[in-house]
């Protein structure tokens, strides 16, 4: 059973969500009303009430949140599994200073649940590897995180 923790992110979750984390983001598909899941790594908690993320300017997520702003971010980290529920909106069509066509999305946190099963503790966090040019990946990471912090 999920345990509601609070209406904002804990300091531990804010600290954890400072980039280079992989999370899943669920929205409601604008075309058919089914759940739509997207993996995101370019995200940043700007404070206890706000998460910003960068998505491709053609992402289905943008269409989804235009129709229904409700989203849930699933975080596997900081020792547990969390469902962060909130409302999302696009705050810019093009992230300033980013060479890629990336839109900025901001999520206003409304509820945070610990959704780890009873008696469980997360001991290993999900990892990922970028499969394209390392120098280019570093360039894009720098551009995106600079823009998200503005």
TrEMBL record:
> Out of the domains of life, which is the source?
Bacteria
Q: Which SUPFAM superfamilies match?
A: FMN-binding split barrel
UniProt domain Pyridoxamine 5'-phosphate oxidase N-terminal: residue ranges = 10-94
Q: Which NCBIfam families match?
A: PRK06733.1
- Name-wise, this protein is Pyridoxamine 5'-phosphate oxidase family protein
Give the originating organism.
Answer: Tumebacillus lacus
Q: What is the lineage of its organism?
A: Bacteria, Bacillati, Bacillota, Bacilli, Bacillales
């Amino acid at each position: 059973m999920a345990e509601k923790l609070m209406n904002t992110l804990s300091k531990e979750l804010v600290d954890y969500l400072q980039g280079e984390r992989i999370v899943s983001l669920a929205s409601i598909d604008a075309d058919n009303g089914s759940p739509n899941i997207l993996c995101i790594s370019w995200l940043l908690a700007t404070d206890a009430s706000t998460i910003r993320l960068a998505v491709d300017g053609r992402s289905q997520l943008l269409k989804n949140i235009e129709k229904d702003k409700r989203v849930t971010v699933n975080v596997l980290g900081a020792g547990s599994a969390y469902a962060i529920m909130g409302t999302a909106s696009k705050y810019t069509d093009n992230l300033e200073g980013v060479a890629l066509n990336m839109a900025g999305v901001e999520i206003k946190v409304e509820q945070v649940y610990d959704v780890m099963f009873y008696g469980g503790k997360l001991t290993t966090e999900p990892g990922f590897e970028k499969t394209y040019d390392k120098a280019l990946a570093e360039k894009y990471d720098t551009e995106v995180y600079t823009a998200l912090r503005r």
